[in-house]
Amino acid sequence: MYNGFLAAGLLIGVMSGDRGFISFFLTCVAVAGIFGAATVSMRIFFVQALPALIALLLLALT
Length: 62
Fold this sequence. Notes:
The chain is mainly alpha-helical. Helix content is 89%, strand content 0%.
């Protein structure tokens, strides 16, 4: 359910073009991924947090 809310938030953000909205949800994904990597498996960082951090970087550069 959590991932569904994040996906819906990112989709709404992309459809609306609201960069702040997109940044918020990408940050949520990154924080969840970092927390998961610290508490469960480092693999979560590479699967969830790293792509979100790259997307945040690309968003900031455009």
